[in-house]
Amino acid sequence: MTLLRIAAEKCRFTPPRQVTDDTSVLTLKNLVLEPLIRWDDGVLRPALFGAWSHDGTARRWRFTIRPGARFHDGKPCVAEDVVHFIEQICNSLDMFGMKWAYSRYLAHARITAEASDVVAVENPTPFADILDIFTEFYICRLTPDGRPLLGTGPWRVLDHTPERDAVLERVADPRDRIAFTAIADADDRLLALREGHADAAMNLERMHAAPDFGADLAWGRALNTLSVMYYLNCAQGFFTSEAARRAVNMAVDSQAIIDGLFHGLGQRSATIVSPLHRGMKAAALSPIPFDPDGARRLLDGAAPSAPLVIRTPEHMPERAREISEQVAADLAAIGLPSRIEVQKDRPEFAREVGRKEMGDMAIFDSTPHSTYRVLNDKVSSAVKGIWWQGHDDTALEAMITEANHAVADEERETAYGRCLARLQANPPWLYLFHPIEVFAHRPGLTGITLDGKGVLGIA
Question: CA-CA 20 to 30 A from 391: which of 182, 212, 246, 434?
């Protein structure tokens, strides 16, 4: 028997209707469950759906389940299972109990089981972005005792103690096993690896000091699609001004935040999404230059009538309060006074931002790896999604509509690229950075990778 021991921050299987972006949880899900379509750093690959096609207009899609797909209790996975699961997840909640937007994306779609192995999706308008959405759907059934552990993935759950550990065995060869152990502190995870209690350790970018990248271990890192950013209140106050929004993007030294608070493990943001998102290749953007003198000139003496209110939780994103303190200092340097309001209840902070109770600016993390989703949930004034904060740009809305209706991959890339370039020129957010995640394993191991969502892959 071969056993791979992994030290993870958490060890948890979330209920099928609860959505999460936690990288520890996603790693377990990717091994045991299976996405309908696999997202591979921006490339879409077969998963539970082994093939798909559309009618040429992207209004009608046919998705074929891969041959031999079975749940881990032996039940064949058929189209009716997928349709039922999609119906459930359209009413999904995030970790804070807030409803996700899947039901809105699919509001006009008719989803049916066309055959035992074929799911059909019909939409009144072209909908090529259905592929991006399906990468987030991990089909799951409950065990007889109600636990969300039955998937169709290459590994099945042999044993699991919630929040403590899990043992998986390979479906194709039960002699291969993986043991996950939850170790909350990143320094302790690295210690477990170095002392031989683990073979690999995740999320070492969260160590208190910078990882030493010592030669005694093999190290890996990957840019994450997550964006650490601030919503700017575009509906009222100082940031209704396009010049003010661009000025704060010039005034804040995001590289200093990366270097000073995150051991240099990050990449500056250029727009609303990461370099791994659709449209970024076509947009070919560089970050807005740090230029406090230029920011002062752009403001031309304009100032808020009262100190700007910067709202922040204490975590999610990591070190949110310290980031806010650095932002406040940079704004003060160009003549913009501010005060920081701290909300210690992170779920309530998210609900407040969703209710537009955000002060003048509120730190947040934007997690979707789909450009369509970020535009739909957070930016479009036509949609006015839960995270929209009043940004209204007529030229941008025409670009979003064009991108949403594009069908061919090249056409979609170009159309979304125009949206992203426009959002750099007329920013609704203060763009900061995308984290770089780090893992390590004992020398000699092969086939361990890390993708742009922070998911540890095991060949």
Answer: 434
Q: What is the pLDDT of residue 416?
A: 98
C-alpha angle 413-417-422 in degrees, rounded to nearest 5:
160
The HSE-up count of residue 117 (CA atoms within 13 Å, CB side) is: 13
SS3 content of the chain, % helix, strand, coil (to 5): 30, 25, 45
CB 204 within 8 A of CB 186: yes
CA angle 88, 90, 93 (to 5 degrees): 90
Work out the average pLDDT over 424-435. Answer: 98
Mean pLDDT of the chain: 95
Tokens representing residue 403 in the block: 């991108």
- Location of structure tokens 């998705």: 63
Separation CA 436–CA 342 (nearest Å): 26
Confidence (pLDDT) at 178: 97
- Written as six digits, the tokens of 91 are 């009413």
- Whole-model pTM? 0.95
Cα 294 → chain centroid: 32
pLDDT of residue 92: 73
Cα separation, 360 vs 345, in Å, equals 19
According to the model, what pLDDT value does residue 340 have?
98
- For residue 394 the two structure tokens come to 């007529």
